[in-house]
C-alpha cells in the first residue's frame, strides 16, 4: 500500500508526516480473518493497535454467560488504542462480522510514533473526542423511543463507514442482536423497527449480499434528532 492510499483510508493518519507514514507501513503486520472468527481475545488487549483495512468487526463484552456487543467498527477505523495506555484487566474481545483485513502495529512502536509526530498525536485525540461525543449523544437519548435510538445507530454507521452508491449509503447488514445491543434496545423491538423502516422505503436489506442500503439518510437523521 502506498503512503497516500494509507492516509486516505485511515483518517487517523490524514495529517501524519510522510516519514511517519512510511515508518508505520514498514512495521505494520497484515491479518486476514473469516466471518465469525475472534480477531482479538480479551487476554491480547494492550499488545497492539489494530486498523480495519476492509470488512466489519464487533467489540463484545463478557459478563458471566452473557455476551453484549458494545461497538461495531468498519473500514478506516481502529481499536486497541486505549488498552495500550491502560493495563487493567479486560473483559472484551473483537470478532469479525464479515471477512476482514486488519493491520496491526505493536503498542511500543505506536506509542513511540505518537511521541515523534505531534500531528498524529493531535489527530488521535480529535478522533477519541469524536467517539466520546457520539457516546454522550447516545447517553442523552437513552430514554427516548427505540426507533429514535436505532435511527441514530444507523446514521452513525452510515456516516462513519458507509459507501456512497447511486442507490443510497451502503453498510454491512448487521445482525439484529448486535444492532439491538449497540442501540441498547430489545432485539424484538429492533426487528420490528427495521421492518417498518423497510416498508417506508428508508432502508433496503440485501440478505444475500450481506448489505444494507440507507436510502433516506436525511429522514433517518431527522428521526434520530440529529437535524
TrEMBL record:
Name the coiled-coil region(s): none
Q: Which Gene3D superfamilies match?
A: Jelly Rolls, Winged helix-like DNA-binding domain superfamily/Winged helix DNA-binding domain
List all membrane-crossing ranges. none
Q: Which Pfam families match?
A: cNMP_binding
Molecular function GO labels: DNA-binding transcription factor activity
Entry-linked InterPro entries: cNMP-bd_dom, cNMP-bd_dom_sf, Env_Response_Regulators, RmlC-like_jellyroll, WH-like_DNA-bd_sf, WH_DNA-bd_sf
Domain (Cyclic nucleotide-binding) spans: 12-131
Which CDD domains does the annotation name?
CAP_ED
Instruction: Tell me where on the tree of life, at the top rank, the source sits.
Output: Bacteria
User: What cellular component terms from Gene Ontology apply here?
Assistant: cytosol
PANTHER family with a match to the protein in the record: CRP FAMILY TRANSCRIPTIONAL REGULATORY PROTEIN (PTHR24567), HTH-TYPE TRANSCRIPTIONAL REGULATOR ARCR (PTHR24567:SF74)
Descriptive protein name: Crp/Fnr family transcriptional regulator
Question: Where does this protein come from, organism-wise?
Answer: Thermoleptolyngbya sichuanensis A183
Amino acid at each position: 500500500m502506498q503512503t497516500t492510499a494509507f492516509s486516505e483510508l485511515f483518517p487517523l493518519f490524514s495529517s501524519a508526516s510522510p516519514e511517519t507514514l512510511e515508518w508505520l507501513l514498514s512495521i505494520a503486520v497484515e491479518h486476514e480473518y473469516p466471518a465469525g472468527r475472534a480477531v482479538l481475545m480479551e487476554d491480547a488487549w494492550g499488545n497492539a493497535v489494530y486498523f480495519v483495512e476492509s470488512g466489519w468487526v464487533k467489540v463484545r463484552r463478557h459478563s458471566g454467560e452473557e455476551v453484549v456487543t458494545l461497538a461495531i467498527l468498519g473500514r478506516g477505523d481502529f481499536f486497541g488504542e486505549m488498552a495500550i495506555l491502560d493495563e487493567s484487566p479486560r473483559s472484551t474481545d473483537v470478532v469479525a462480522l464479515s471477512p476482514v483485513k486488519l493491520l496491526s502495529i505493536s503498542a511500543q512502536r505506536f506509542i513511540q510514533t505518537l511521541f515523534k509526530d505531534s500531528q498524529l498525536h493531535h489527530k488521535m485525540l480529535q478522533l477519541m473526542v469524536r467517539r466520546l461525543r457520539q457516546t454522550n449523544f447516545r447517553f442523552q437519548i437513552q430514554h427516548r423511543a427505540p426507533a429514535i435510538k436505532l435511527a441514530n445507530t444507523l446514521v452513525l454507521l452510515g456516516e462513519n463507514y458507509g459507501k456512497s452508491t447511486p442507490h443510497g449509503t451502503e453498510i454491512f447488514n448487521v445482525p439484529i442482536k448486535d444492532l439491538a445491543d449497540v442501540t441498547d434496545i430489545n432485539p424484538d423491538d429492533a426487528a420490528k423497527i427495521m421492518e417498518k423502516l423497510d416498508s417506508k422505503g428508508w432502508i433496503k436489506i440485501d440478505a444475500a449480499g450481506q448489505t444494507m442500503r440507507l436510502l433516506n439518510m436525511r429522514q433517518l437523521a431527522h428521526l434520530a434528532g440529529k437535524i
